[in-house]
């Protein structure tokens, strides 16, 4: 359950992220961190309406690393350009993995 006063910081956003003005976070940062962790979402700290920092739950921080974000951008580009394949079965998908890795016949 979220701390009762955390709801005042929340703005409805489609991705469940929420924003906290820096002047309101003062003295409540542990509550903001707890809310982000419990909701599995990002808490953005704002200064005059501009996002200046983000609190990301530790178990989800991998997603925001430069390497992962580059891979996400590459996957998005592949999808936009039609560089995707559909497999009829999971076996077909895994057979393709084996082929790409060079594990065919092992």
Poorly predicted regions = 1-14
The CATH architecture of the largest domain comes to 3-Layer(aba) Sandwich
End-to-end Cα distance, whole Å, is 50 Å
Give the mean pLDDT. 84
Q: Order of strands side by side in the largest beta sheet?
A: 1-2-3
Main sheet? 3 strands, mixed
Q: What general form does the structure show? A: elongated
Range of strand content: 5-15%
Structural class category: alpha+beta
| Integer-rounded radius of gyration | 20 Å
Helix content: 25-40%
Number of domains: 2
The count of β-strands is: 3
Q: At the third CATH level, what is the topology name of the largest domain?
A: YefM-like fold
What is the CATH top level name of the largest domain? Alpha Beta
Number of helices: 4
């Amino acid at each position: 359950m979220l701390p009762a006063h955390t709801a005042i910081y929340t703005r409805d956003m489609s991705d469940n992220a929420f924003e906290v003005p820096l002047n309101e976070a003062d003295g409540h940062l542990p509550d903001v961190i707890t809310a982000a962790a419990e909701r599995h979402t990002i808490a953005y700290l704002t200064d005059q309406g501009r996002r200046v920092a983000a609190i990301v739950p530790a178990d989800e921080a991998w997603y925001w690393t430069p390497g992962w974000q580059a891979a996400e951008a590459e996957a998005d580009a592949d999808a936009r350009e039609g560089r995707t394949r559909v497999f009829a079965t999971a076996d077909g998908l895994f057979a393709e993995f084996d082929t790409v890795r060079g594990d065919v016949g092992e």
